Here is the input.
Amino acid sequence: MKPLHYVMLAIMLLIGIIVGIDGVNRQQLSVAPRTQGNTDGSTLYVRYCAACHGANLEGQANWQTARLDGSYPAPPHDASGHTWHHPDAYLVAVTLQGGAAITGNPQNAMPGFAQQLTPAQAQAIIDYIKSTWPADIQAQQASLNQ
Ligand code: HEC
Here is the structure.
């Protein structure tokens, strides 16, 4: 081979490597988000809910006191809150569609997660929340689901 041929071969190899790496990167980018299909309720809770409802489901400070704009802070999801006063279907609906849509109160600041979560994922989060309650609270809430 003439020296020029070596140079051309080297350039072609280099282009091949670059295109190859680019292809791998594109493949990685098109990989689904981490939570897609994930139905681990506690993982999803940490990712989507804990910022407002608290890492330990404790809610925001003074959650029973309205802010100046009339909205309320996020309530706890532990036994001290009122999440357990509602059946699963209501809790899943609020989670997916948001508080304003379900309660009819435009001041309700609970966002809807229908774009982020499937109904199965929303139910998994509610199941996780329920699993943290004492047995008597679990039983009372379960009776609402009948
Ligand atoms: C940006 C803050 C914020 C995030 C994030 C958030 N919430 Fe809320 N959530 C609220 C607020 C505020 C309320 C209370 C609204 C009201 O009563 O006016 C609420 C209320 C609720 C209620 C109704 C409780 C009841 O007893 O009526 C449920 C259920 C709920 N949230 C579930 C979730 C779940 C599940 C997630 C995660 C997927 C989540 N929330 C993420 C702010 C948030």
